[in-house]
């Protein structure tokens, strides 16, 4: 058994399709099929059930997947440790970030980290909160930037800051001169919000539930930048984290919400018992500094 067998097996398991997996690996489908067949022959059990054009893992495949991920993860951590013997002159760091934080804080962090450690390849992936936790837990991500505390008890968390959700309105909106608005006043206000799968939307829905009213949602968009740009052009009001509104954005106003004031905590996520990584520690240090500057600005 060779490492490529494990990588090919996991690619098929994740894609649930041989052709899609082959494309992601940049190999031909016959080559991929042959490698998986060799692995199944060596293990003495079928790993996949073929269903139409797709595949699904057998019970043996499910069991083997967990072990295969662990083996590759430990090898990657060992390689990262060896790379760091050069003093962060080379290496690779994978970071998962929730969308709102990725929109306003990560660009600054990436620029500073890359300038300080140009030899380290940085991979940043925007994911849902659950996606970040899964990635860190499985070892595909070295570090997560998400909401804390995490649902996964196998993760360590470090609080970075608390972010408050605010009402974001066009400059000429009737409420543009107000300092606060109660959530109960928003019952008839057309809102543009994120889809239900996003934690920001779940917080909005919860705030309206506590206020005893229903939100009048007329537009759903899955991009923070697109939502802010639409408000700039005189679109509907929205509710977003205050820190997600760029410092120099024009033609919009932010108004604090009360009754309740929705807020959440953002932090760093790491796998408990994970291999020490200097690159991860360095990125976390830059992240802490950027978060502190943002809070004080």
How does this model look, in words?
It comes from Singulisphaera acidiphila (strain ATCC BAA-1392 / DSM 18658 / VKM B-2454 / MOB10). Residues 1-58 form the HTH lysR-type domain. Belongs to the LysR transcriptional regulatory family. One of its GO terms (molecular function) is DNA-binding transcription factor activity. By secondary structure, the chain is of the alpha/beta class. The protein has 3 domains: 3-71, Winged helix-like DNA-binding domain superfamily/Winged helix DNA-binding domain (Arc Repressor Mutant, subunit A), CATH 1.10.10.10; 78-161 and 266-296, D-Maltodextrin-Binding Protein, domain 2; 162-264, D-Maltodextrin-Binding Protein, domain 2 (3-Layer(aba) Sandwich), CATH 3.40.190. It has 10 helices and 12 strands. The protein has helices at residues 3-15, 18-25, 29-43, 59-83, 99-104, 106-116, 129-138, 199-211, 224-232, 278-296; strands at residues 48-51, 54-57, 91-98, 120-127, 143-148, 155-170, 180-182, 190-193, 216-220, 237-241, 252-258, 263-271. Strand 8, helix 8 (199-211) and strand 9 (216-220) form a beta-alpha-beta unit. Helix 1 (3-15) crosses helix 3 (29-43), helix 1 (3-15) packs across helix 4 and helix 2 packs across helix 3. The radius of gyration is 23 Å and the shape is globular. The termini are far apart. The mean pLDDT is 89.
